[in-house]
Structures are given as structure tokens and as C-alpha cells.
């Protein structure tokens, strides 16, 4: 799971940088307003999962959600098929 979390957080950071670049060069405020909060929430979910104990009743559900969200980046060469839910 650590590899999946590292991959997902890395893609989120890449997206944050890309959206900031678009906003700086093309004035993409609407894009930023709609996507950055979602990326922040996914980042928060990943960090919450890292902090959870394996016995936490929420752990399995959060892990499933992270696996589903990670599929958005399945085009990446670094994506692993075993991460699919």
C-alpha cells in the first residue's frame, strides 16, 4: 500500500503543479477552482490512511477508495495492475 500511496501523492503533486502553470500562463481560474480542492481531499485521504492503524474499522474502506482514485492515473507507466480494486 505504501507504493500505491507514494504513486498517488506523486501524481497529485504533478497535477497541482500543472494546474498552477495553466493558471499562471492562461488564466485558468475555473479549472483551479474545480480541481484543486478535489486533489487536496485525495491527498488528505492518503495521509489519513497512512496514519491509520491496520485494526481501524475504516482502513479497508479507505484503502478501496484510494485504489479506485488511483485508477485515474492508470495511463502512467508507473501504474501497477495489482493496485486495481
- Nearest-angstrom radius of gyration? 14 Å
Helix-strand string: HHH
Number of domains: 1
Proportion in β-strands: under 5%
The total of beta strands comes to 0
The average pLDDT value, as a whole number, equals 85
Short synopsis of the structure:
With 85 residues, the protein is mainly α.
Question: What does the model show?
Answer:
This protein has one domain. Helix content is 71%, strand content 0%. It has helices at residues 2-26, 29-51, 59-70.
List the defining traits of the structure above:
85 residues; single chain; mainly alpha
Topology of this structure?
Blueprint: H1 2-26, H2 29-51, H3 59-70
Amino acid at each position: 500500500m505504501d507504493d500505491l500511496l507514494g504513486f498517488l501523492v506523486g501524481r497529485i503533486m504533478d497535477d497541482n503543479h500543472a494546474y498552477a502553470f495553466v493558471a499562471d500562463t492562461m488564466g485558468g481560474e475555473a479549472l483551479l477552482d474545480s480541481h484543486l480542492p478535489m486533489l487536496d481531499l485525495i491527498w488528505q485521504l492518503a495521509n489519513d490512511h497512512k496514519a491509520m492503524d491496520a485494526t481501524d474499522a475504516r482502513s479497508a474502506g479507505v484503502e478501496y477508495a484510494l485504489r479506485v482514485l488511483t485508477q485515474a492515473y492508470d495511463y502512467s507507466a508507473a501504474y501497477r495492475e495489482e493496485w486495481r480494486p
